[in-house]
């Protein structure tokens, strides 16, 4: 069972990711409008937000998706039955994938990189691309540990209440 502190930290990090999604969303919005428009007070304050529309959309959605996943994980803890070690691994891998999918996506949007391959692959490479790409490995590994642990934990809980659903 998750400790109260772990559940609270999952929710707190989830809320912080939702706030990150809002902030990234504002940059996305300003980039689309090519500045700040506060009509009728100010017609346009030109602000050059670098990057691609699709990359900002991705960063915006990564933050909301991962924030929601952390909050959801905290809320379903009564239905996750794992050992103390497995709970700790699930906790840390969840925080890792949530932040390290979101922050590199925002960095990709800001720097105009893809970070899908070291050296750029079919896209433009460079130091920034390579650093962001390397930040993707912990999240890639973590999500492939966290999600099977979630399924396993819920399955263990189901096994412990099996047969009671028809009473």
Q: What would your notes on this structure say?
A:
The protein is mainly alpha-helical and 167 residues long. It has one domain (4-161). 69% of the residues lie in helices and 5% in strands. It has helices spanning 4-33, 53-75, 84-111, 127-161; strands at 35-38, 42-46.
SSE series:
HEEHHH
Largest sheet: 2 strands, antiparallel
Radius of gyration equals 20 Å
Structural class: mainly alpha
First and last CA, distance: 26 Å
Shape: globular
Low-confidence region ranges: none
DSSP summary: helix tally: 4
The tally of beta strands, per DSSP, is 2
Widest sheet, order of strands: 1-2
Throw out a few tags for this protein:
single chain, 167 residues, mainly alpha, two-stranded antiparallel sheet, 4 helices, globular
What's the layout of helices and strands?
Blueprint: H1 4-33, E1 35-38, E2 42-46, H2 53-75, H3 84-111, H4 127-161
Antiparallel strand pairs: 1-2
Question: Gist?
Answer:
Helices cover 69% and strands 5% of the residues. It has 167 residues and is mainly alpha-helical.
């Amino acid at each position: 069972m998750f400790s109260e502190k772990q559940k609270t930290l999952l929710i707190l990090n989830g809320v912080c990711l939702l706030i990150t999604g809002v902030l990234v969303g504002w940059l996305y919005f300003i980039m689309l409008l090519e500045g700040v428009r506060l009509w009728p007070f100010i017609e346009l304050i030109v602000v050059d937000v670098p990057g691609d529309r699709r990359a900002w959309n991705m960063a915006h959605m990564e933050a909301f998706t991962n924030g929601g996943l952390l909050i959801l994980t905290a809320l379903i803890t009564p239905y996750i039955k794992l050992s103390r070690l497995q709970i700790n691994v699930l906790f840390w891998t969840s925080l890792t994938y949530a932040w390290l999918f979101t922050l590199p996506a925002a960095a990709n949007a800001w720097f105009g990189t893809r970070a899908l391959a070291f050296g750029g692959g079919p896209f433009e490479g460079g130091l920034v691309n390579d650093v962001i790409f390397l930040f993707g490995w912990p999240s890639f590994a973590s999500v492939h540990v966290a999600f099977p642990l979630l399924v396993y934990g819920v399955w263990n809980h189901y096994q412990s209440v099996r047969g009671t659903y028809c009473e």
